[in-house]
Write a structure and sequence with these properties.
The protein is α+β, with helices and mostly antiparallel strands. It is built from 14 helices and 33 strands. Keywords: Membrane, Transmembrane, Transmembrane helix.
């Protein structure tokens, strides 16, 4: 949509420039060749405020019914302060027109052939472009010549052909660069049904340093002039794996209004749409979207579109307002079934699902094999400055293997380069995670802050695919408040400050998980072979302080009727290292109980777990059995019970955690 809008601006500028050139040439036609050269080389430039010259051959075959003109090496100087000396150069122009029609106020061309035109359009600031001519601004001569008020005032043209053209467009305000090589541009009068071929444009070039190929066809020039007829347009643009296909009509092609067309967009990554639209989107797996494109004044709309992004369905409506210096996107998006793997791009993870592109799967595998756990792919901060947006996304159901995600409702609000996810609501484990995330893209190293509330999350849901789901019950909540700086999640966490707390009161956990370390092998086997039992949870509090990327536990306690688990946890998020000590003190001492703390240390992605080998005793044998039957986490449990203590005071722990 923004690409179409840019086309409108570019076409307007091209029309003004070419209209001015033809106006100058028309004046020349009525004079002899020596007078013409004197006028063009010395007078015309002064009239328009630019150097204008025909350096090559100029032939005029005058005839009252049809006058033929041939000119070579035409050039128009650039505006002052711009790099290239010429704004326009044309190798040659051939055209014929009917002078008699001019007496009736009509401009009629027969054939127009333009060979090797080279046009450079530049915009330094909102009021500084090289296609404006101050010397003609009062009369508005160039614009009126090029841009008729209505379709019926468009010149009559028999045929037009442009060969080997080149268009360069640079917009310093929007940081846009276009370099288009036009192989052929052709058009003719007459309806297609009556032999008219319509127009055709083929070309390729660079847009934002990305290669693309353009192929467009449309109605005839007579259709362009007939206000009673819609003007058909078919366009296909291919930029790498991204394909944009438009099929529809313009109610008024001269003013580029009344657009009604089908629009299909497909590619490997929605983030690549930025090169066409300047809309910042996160990396995604391959996608295809289909909908209806319309335009009302400066607002483009993509209505009732549907499609797939990776393994997720996506539908909705969006509009893009191009009236300001920064575009404004407003959208309401809905997914009935969202694959959580398709959301990896939001936190710097490469898509890895079965629908991911081959290069995305390769990158995901490389990251998985690396030593780092936290995503370190930087955010494209400059993209946050290209447009504003207000987008809501609602996922009615989330598919997340191994995780109890249920739904998502989030609003993306990007204003003046500050992106806010607010409100952010995640349905997780029969509870919710709500709050906000903010990224300030006004800075090259953006500050980020996160405020999240964990509300009534079901502990059982996290054991849904294990044998402990029937003995694990209860709910927990908590808070996450973090603020850091950096372009990637890894950088933000490495510099973060804040706190993290989790609180649980009531519920039950598997007796096997809590008490297995106090059982001898003979006692443990019946639980493995038969029905497990549950032990009530009196209180659980985990309260962490975060300073300069270092997370340290202030309180780490889990109190059950059978034991008290104490912990001392430290995590360096910059170096991704963990150093934790977990110690369990049983309230019902068995013969094999021993005070044997467990130590977790090393790389966060692959930590090592160990105990004091001189104090492991028979507990090592029980752990070996558990390690073969349970998850790696469950294998740690036998080492974290020892001693005998009084019950912890849950209210006191909660008060401490809430300070």
């Amino acid at each position: 949509m923004a690409f179409q809008f840019r086309q409108h601006r570019i076409l307007t500028a091209i029309s003004a420039v070419l209209g001015l050139l033809f106006l100058c040439i028309f004046i020349l036609v009525f004079f002899s060749e020596p007078i013409i050269r004197s006028f063009t080389n010395h007078k015309a430039g002064g009239k328009i405020g630019r150097e204008f010259a025909i350096d090559g051959k100029l032939d005029i075959n005058w005839d009252w019914n049809k006058t033929r003109v041939h000119a070579e090496k035409i050039r128009l100087g650039n505006a002052e302060g711009y790099t290239e000396p010429e704004m326009v150069t044309i190798e040659s122009v051939d055209f014929d027109f009917k002078p008699a029609k001019l007496l009736l106020g009509r401009l009629e061309f027969g054939d127009i052939k333009i060979n090797k035109p080279n046009i450079i359009l530049e915009k330094k600031s909102p009021g500084d472009t090289n296609w404006e001519f101050p010397a003609l601004s009062n009369a508005n001569l160039a614009s009126e010549a090029a841009l008729p008020d209505s379709r019926k005032n468009f010149p009559v043209i028999g045929n037009i052909t442009i060969n080997d053209g080149r268009l360069i467009y640079r917009d310093g305000v929007k940081n846009l660069n276009l370099d288009l090589e036009l192989e052929t541009v052709s058009g003719s009068g007459g309806d297609k049904g009556k032999g008219g071929a319509g127009f055709k444009i083929t070309g390729d070039g660079l847009l934002q340093k990305q290669k693309f190929v353009l192929d467009a066809t449309g109605g005839s020039i007579d259709t362009l002039r007939d206000s009673s007829m819609d003007f058909p347009l078919n366009l296909k643009l291919v930029m790498g794996p991204t394909e944009v296909t438009v099929n529809g009509v313009f109610k008024d092609p001269v003013k580029m209004t009344g657009v009604d067309a089908s629009l299909e967009i497909k590619g490997h990554n929605l983030a690549d749409i930025f090169y066409l639209t300047a809309i910042p989107l996160p990396p995604t797996p391959p996608y295809v979207l289909k909908g209806q494109l319309t335009k009302d004044n400066d607002v483009w709309s993509y209505k009732e579109f549907t499609g797939k992004v990776g393994g997720s369905d996506l539908s909705g409506n969006l509009s893009y307002d191009t009236s300001g210096e920064r575009g404004f996107l407003k959208a309401e998006l809905v997914s009935n079934l969202l694959d959580s793997r398709d959301l990896g791009g939001f936190i710097g993870l490469s898509p890895s699902g079965e629908n991911a592109a081959p290069e995305q799967k390769t990158e995901a595998a490389r990251k998985k094999a690396g030593k780092k756990l936290i995503p370190d792919v930087p955010l494209e901060v400059k993209r946050l400055r290209a447009a504003d947006l207000d987008v809501t996304l609602k996922a009615k159901k989330i598919e997340a293997p191994g995780l109890p995600f249920k739904g998502l409702d989030v609003r993306f609000d990007l204003q003046n380069s500050i992106l806010k996810l607010n409100p952010l609501n995640i349905v997780l484990a029969d509870g919710t995670v709500d709050g906000s995330v903010e990224i300030n893209g006004q800075h090259d190293v953006p500050p980020m802050k996160m405020d999240l509330n964990l509300r009534k999350l079901s502990l059982k849901q996290f054991f849904g695919n294990t044998r402990f789901k029937d003995t694990t019950k209860g709910y927990f909540g908590g808070k996450v408040n973090l603020a850091g700086t950096g372009a990637s999640l890894a950088d933000v966490l490495a510099t973060s400050n804040g706190s993290l707390s989790i609180i649980m009161s009531g519920g039950t956990m598997s007796l096997l998980l809590i008490e297995a370390s106090d059982l001898d092998i003979g006692q443990a086997l019946p639980l493995f072979m038969g029905e497990d039992k549950a032990t009530p949870i009196r209180c659980g509090v985990m309260d962490f302080d975060v300073r300069n990327g270092i997370l340290k536990s202030k309180i780490f306690v889990l109190d059950t009727e059978d034991s008290l688990l104490l912990g001392n946890v430290g995590i360096d998020m910059k170096r991704e290292l963990i150093n934790a000590k977990l110690d369990s003190k049983p309230k019902d001492v068995s013969i094999l109980s021993a005070q044997t703390p467990i130590i977790v240390s090393g790389e966060l992605k692959k930590p090592s777990v160990g105990i004091d080998p001189t104090r492991a005793g028979a507990r090592g044998a029980a752990a070996a059995i558990l390690g073969t039957l349970l998850t790696p986490f469950a294998a740690i449990i036998p080492f974290i019970e020892a001693g005998d203590v009084q019950n912890a005071n849950c209210r006191a722990l909660i008060r401490e955690a809430n300070k």
